[in-house]
Sequence to fold (184 residues):
Amino acid sequence: MREQEKMQEQENQIDDRAQPDTNPAADTPSTMDASGLEEELATALMKASEMQDAFLRAKAEAENIRRRAQDDISRAHKFAIEGFAEMLVPVIDSLEMALKVETPSVESLKEGVEMTLRQLSSAFERNKLVQINPQPGEKLDPMKHQAISMVPAEQTANTIVSVLQKGYMISDRLLRPALVTVAQ
Fold:
């Protein structure tokens, strides 16, 4: 108990030394008069007003930037496929022209379809839409191919036997896997 009392006394002495004088006369210089204090107060109030004005302007500018960024993002989402759509318009035109021919021959239909396919392939190519068309014998890649069935074949297991449907990628992202059959 005695030790606790001694420790308490030491703490009180330390606290007494750490507390500042509360004499207000010691805080203010004797040369400062009321008019000097009023000037200092007016200057401080003017600076505070300027700072508040600057803060409000900066806050409004930040809000405007945020709103413009949201508008830009909204427009980007809305018109993201505009370039691709522009390239598909000639494909639609070709198909509509083919339907307007009154007595088409098999050769002219085939030629029109081939031309339309070239237009469509060109639009895909320009927009980085790439076909996934694996060849028989290639190893199955589960990141690009989807095996529909396994069939007995005279080739290595887990290699592609036939392609049922081509796949597509946009840049490096898989849009649709190629549907394939694989060897057992």
Remarks:
- The chain has a mean pLDDT of 86.
- The beta strands are 129-132, 145-151, 160-165, 167-170, 173-176, 178-183.
- The two ends are 87 Å apart (CA to CA).
- Residues 128-184 form a domain with the Nucleotide Exchange Factor Grpe; Chain A, domain 2 fold (CATH 2.30.22.10).
